[in-house]
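Progress narrative, work stream C.
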Amino acid sequence: MLQDRDSTAFRTLSDVVLAIAAEREVEPVLQRLAHAARELGGARYAALGVPDGEGGFARFITSGMSDELIAAMGPLPRTHGLLGAMLESTEPYRTPDIHTHSRFRGWWPSAHPDMRSFLGVPIVARGGVIGALYLTDKAGAVEFSAADEKLIVLLAAHAAIAIENARLYERSRELSIVEERNRLARELHDSVTQQLFGVVLAAESAGELLARGDDAAGDELERVQALARGAMDELRSVVFELRPASLEAEGLAQVLRKHVEVLRRVSGRAIELRVGSPPALGAEAAGQVFRIAQEALQNALRHAGDARIEVRLEDGGGRLALSVADDGRGFDREAPGVRGRRLGLTSMEERAAELGGRLAVVSSPGAGTTVRLEVPT
């Protein structure tokens, strides 16, 4: 019977490790680890804390607590008491009653549930303790067992690797964004600066003509307007064609993050990006989805006015789901000439059809526009 339990526990641990290995960002990794610790240790509550080096926690992720309870407890705890003790040693600690520990100082805030049995395991990386797993209130027993401790120690070893890998990925992503900004700067300098220089010269010329009362000032102002429109079109073209080097290497979510970051900075507009857990696509299909996202974003920036734009990339029930929504002016899809003015609608539909997916564009005057794509995987 005990052997069966151990076999089940290690199978669960193996599944958890594989799931964590697939995550590339720190927050989802920590949440998976907290849930896994609670399940593997048979605890009512579990938490994972990552210190900030200044007496607090940079992140403190819980499992087993309701959103209402978390809200009632207020801000993140400090690294004091037994929470802090687990960050000062590489050795695990367990007790049937946390109240008896010399560093126990009572519960704060008052909304904190009373807890007794406790198992704490530091998460140790090459540079020392980078966090800790905290388990409380063993289910069906007065205390956590040596077997529980052994299992959570093993989980903590994998946690150290997963957290370090996720941190490295996030740092590399930040570096990639910096590189993309530098490339954008070069593109803008080459393709847009000359046109903007022409705008400045034409504007100065128009100002001198106006000062002299010369009738030619009107013609010069029209030239300024034409040059400015050309510069704006060129800028949009540059941004639209920007595409990080490799969808196959970086993945659709990362490519989309970079593109949205560039659009935010160039346009100065509020664009929110939410990425869930979208199913993977091949590079060619991902490229088509990315182009649809580009087109939908371009349309929103051009036609929605000063609107908020939200982009979502997620799992749509086993299908990849992309949506680009704005709360701007909207338009009448049945109005004459819409297809002619918005050729992007046709190209998006054609791309969606090539993917075997479904594209829906919902809009009406004054009610914003939502473009939603679903692609089978």
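Work stream C, second folded protein:
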Amino acid sequence: MNVLASLESGLYRVFISPAFWVVVLFAVTATAIQLRGRVRLKLKRQIFDHSTFAAPYNLLMYAFSSKPTTPYVDVREFPELEPLADQWQLLRDEGLKLFDQGHIKAAEKHNDAGFQTFFRTGWKRFYLKWYDDPLPSAQALCPRATALVNTIPSLNAAMYALLPPGARLGAHRDPVAASLRYHLGLVTPNSPDCWIEVDGERYFWKDGEGVIFDETYVHTAENRTPMTRIILLCDIERPLKNRVVRWINHVIGHGMVRAGASPNQVGDRQGVLSTLAEYFHNVQTWGRRIKNWNYPVYYVGKKVLLVGLLGLIFYWAL
């Protein structure tokens, strides 16, 4: 009887523990993220993916979205973007000038928290806007394009993005559902062999044509042509139908993404997450050495560190 009473008492303490409900919340929302859409990451990857840790936040954004929560969203739902498509040749001309001068490039110091992994296959970028932080390099090197993107209040971030011949971006989800992604073709092969695929639906870029998609669905991109592709890549604030949720997204969602600011050149602001990414690169260098020495030790150690970090987050949340 005492054993049964102790068991009941222990279960009661578990069920009234905030930590238990934090774990349940993350388990339920992470499962919903994994089951969202037709294409999914492998379970062992999804468990430790950034989108899993942002799952409660992301589901809140989906629930209050005032636009369809489908992989692609009709561009006509965003008439404020029409000036970009109308002046795509202006954007193309300044982008080509940057390209010819070598300014569209990978981060030089491993200090781009948002796109660091893309650089491995040749993807490059040049930021025109990153939330409310002015970029002196953009204002100096491409003033007309920078002025144009700054006329659209809902446009939080904009950059020129380059995908060279033969490059492929592997399947991934963006971690935070604070925005929707807009691509405007500027210099493209206009070919089905240069494409992006979102939740299994393929689209190929065309000069002067825009497309909007939800980057928190699993997506990938590839350029199988001999021509370099240049697009304007923008983050558009996710339209939400509740004032409180809009405030949450503006303060929390924007704060998280804004912290990933990465400079084009010296003098541009660098966010705290990109600064941490620079230090983390040094840790990764040591990790690669361990991986080359003994893969099982590397694999187990990596998972133990991630689980420990998750445990600390839950502990601090109590």
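The chain has a mean pLDDT of 88. No further action is required on this item.
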